[in-house]
């Protein structure tokens, strides 16, 4: 180990030891952005960028386990991404399926699909449902795999589910309008039953949410990191936690 690596490790340990366990976010959402730009910056193929990004996921989950995060939502593929070239999508779905299989095989995490499964290839949708079933009773970290996910689509799906539920009970539109509140919609979101995200991290330097957890992020803290996702380091994660701990959450304006 070189001097630079040694100094980095010392700094990393010091940073982690400075974190207050009482100020660790319960739910962290991560927009895994920058795989394509990472590949271009290293003169690699786009699929190599996606593969490098996939390889980083286990590291992130290990870091979350170490500090006591309870829920992680990983935005792996948006509904807008489904418009990418067919050959890139085919390779990307193959990589994503590999990630889901690895998470399921690890036996350490509960894998929960978050997104519109009907928009995905049949093999991907089946695998996500299988992972959900197979890991349902695994204790520990919940990993929301946001694949084919869009915040507006999620809210539309929640409202649609709510309407179907009340229609099956014979509730009229007028009766539903009288009682409808935000909790009724929250109960039909993809993440129902989970705490809303305390901290949202986006890599690659972009400073926007792009619809990620649009409903749930009303009171979230945001952290934007310049590093492309494949280059995201543990020290970057710890800095995000340090930034979160230093903020005073007001849950309002």
Topology of this protein?
Layout: H1 3-17, E1 27-31, H2 35-41, H3 46-67, E2 71-78, H4 86-106, E3 110-114, H5 122-134, E4 142-149, H6 151-168, H7 173-179, H8 182-186, E5 199-202, E6 221-224, H9 234-245
Parallel strand pairs: 1-2, 1-5, 2-4, 3-4, 5-6
Helix pairs in contact: 1-9, 2-3, 3-4, 4-5
How would you describe what is shown here?
By secondary structure, the chain is of the alpha/beta class. It has a domain at 26-152 and 200-242: Decaprenyl diphosphate synthase-like (Undecaprenyl pyrophosphate synthetase). 47% of the residues lie in helices and 13% in strands. The chain contains nine helices and six strands. The protein has helices at 3-17, 35-41, 46-67, 86-106, 122-134, 151-168, 173-179, 182-186, 234-245, and strands at 27-31, 71-78, 110-114, 142-149, 199-202, 221-224. The protein has a six-stranded parallel sheet with strand order 3-4-2-1-5-6, sandwiched between helices. Helix 5 links the parallel strand 3 (110-114) and strand 4 (142-149). Helix 3 (46-67) runs parallel beside helix 4. The longest helix is centred in the first third of the chain and has 22 residues, at 46-67. It is globular, with a radius of gyration of 19 Å. The model has no long low-confidence stretch (mean pLDDT 95).
